[in-house]
Amino acid sequence: MTSQLVQSVDWLTIAPPVLTAAVALAVLVADLFLPPERKQVLGWTAIGGLTAALALLVPLRADDRSTFCLTPDTRVTACSYTADHFTLVVQLLVLGGALLTALLSLDETRKRLPAGEYWFLLLSSAAGAALLPASRDLATLVVALEVASLPAFALVGLKRGDRMSGEAALKFFLSSVTATAVTLLGASFVYATTGTLHLTEIAQRLDGVPGQFQTLAEAGVALTLVGFAFKTAAVPFHFWVPDTYVGAPLPVAAYLSVVGKAVGLTGLILVTVVAFPSYADVWGPALAVLAALTMTAGNVAALRQSPTRAWSAVRLLAWSSVAQAGYLLVPIAAAAYSGNDQVGATVAYALMYAVVNLGAFAVVALVARVRPRNRIEDYRGLCAASPAAALALAFFLLNLAGLPPGIIGLFAKVTVFSAAVDAGLGWLAVVMALNVVIALYYYLRWTALLFRTPEEAPGEASGGAPEGTPEGSVALRRPSTPITLAIALTAAAGAVLSGYPQVALRFAATTLF
Fold first, then answer.
1. Staple partner for 393: which of 282, 354, 363, 455, CB 3.0–4.6 Å?
2. Residue 119 and residue 43: Cα distance in Å, rounded?
3. What mean pLDDT is predicted for residues 118-131?
4. Under a CB-based contact definition with an 8 Å cutoff, are residues 138 and 199 in contact?
5. Burial (Cβ within 10 Å: 0-12, 13-18, ≥19) of residue 455
């Protein structure tokens, strides 16, 4: 029995999340000794740590590696941490998203947010998010989920003295804690019926659950999925999204829209495809219905956003992210009917979504410097004041809509659509097609506004317009280097993926378990 407590440890395999966590602690300690005028060093330290963590993924791509495995003499080969292709791609998405968020955050921590706390919380959340795709037992999975989530609550409420920020953090916290409690209850039911926490072992033992425990096992499967559905912002667990995004600092909203969603999707994939394949008849139809409801509710709510309403630009992106979650759920539901191969479509789509959505938030953060109420109407005539920013935002929105020149957005949607058709979910493919048409309206409406003739705008911007700026257009201040770099990186990544969509689509074929 004691031999089962002895586990192997491969330090290179666990290096990316461990390094991220170590840099988080280093930043927290350094914050105690740095004077206020040198706090920006913490931000660049965080960026350096995330870059190094990304670099550590390179030596792991050669083959699959596992650690924290039970010793061979126990006759069990289950491991708690596995770095396979799926893990590495999701860690690339998570750490890359955190790096771009860090670039967007440098100006915020210089002016409005406490630097030490912010960078510690961001890196801690990124470490948990990087741990989650490698988790192969329920205990590690839940711990990783909470390590990714708990710092996010504090990040949302970090704008001290801001009532909206405090309310958003409280709503996010209470609903998330409830979902976590339900997930833990479900995990305990699964453990009670199988006697193990390792996902592969659960998959084997669920096939032989005695009849008297069948209902308990089904309840455990259903409850375990609830927490991850919440993180994905699937309907009806989506109600926290718009208020949280509006109340949070813009870089945090961008982080939640990409990394937070990746955490939920990854958890869903692991518990459904790896742990609960024998209950596909339970979670398959449930996820298909959730996908249809989520994409429809998100698109209809985004369609109803008034261009003149305060923070309507952020609200539209929030509801758009809910709709995109619906698309991302389609291949997971399809895996219940036609095998694990469909899951790769979710990963490919998530990569596209992460790049263009972070880019859109970067431009929104740029405009928010002079139009803090961030209405869609504030973007009228943006092309006249800043052609580069307008073209970048138009490119990101067209990618989200799935229109050229955003070829990668089109290919990603076709891949998801094909997954539904191949699985025999024709009705879900029809619902998706209708929702794509609905989304075209609000994406194209915002895009067209960028190139319209400027009108007399409310005197909301601070300072006068730069010389040569057309009257009524968005008079942007000179963008800081970090924001410019974030926009340039996301635009370049989107252009490369649009020119060579096979780069992302190849992940769909190589991220199988």
1. 363
2. 7
3. 94
4. yes
5. exposed
Q: What is 351-373 written as a DSSP string?
A: HHHHHHHHHHHHHHHHHHTT-TT
Amino acid at 218: E
Rg (CA), the chain: 23
Assign residue 129 a region (left: φ > 0; alpha: ψ between -120 and 50; beta: otherwise). Answer: alpha
Q: Which amino acid is at 37?
A: E
DSSP-assigned beta bridge partners for residue 67: 81
DSSP-H helix ranges across 135-279: 138-156, 163-194, 199-205, 214-232, 241-247, 250-255, 261-269
For tokens 């003149």, the residue is: 308
Rounded Cα distance, 400 and 352, in Å = 9
**Phi and psi, residue 83, nearest 5°:** -105, 85
At position 436, the amino acid (one-letter code) is V
Evaluate whether 493 touches 503 at the Cβ level (below 8 Å): no
Q: What is the mean pLDDT of residues 101-115?
A: 87
Strand partners, 83: 65
Q: How far apart are CA 182 and CA 408, in angstroms?
A: 37
- Tell me the C-alpha to C-alpha distance, in Å, between residue 76 and each of 68, 70, 138, 276: 12, 6, 17, 19
Q: Judge contact between 465 and 370, C-beta under 8 A.
A: no
Cis before residue 114, ω within 30 degrees of 0?
no
Tally the C-alpha atoms within 13 A of residue 66's C-alpha that lie toward its C-beta: 14
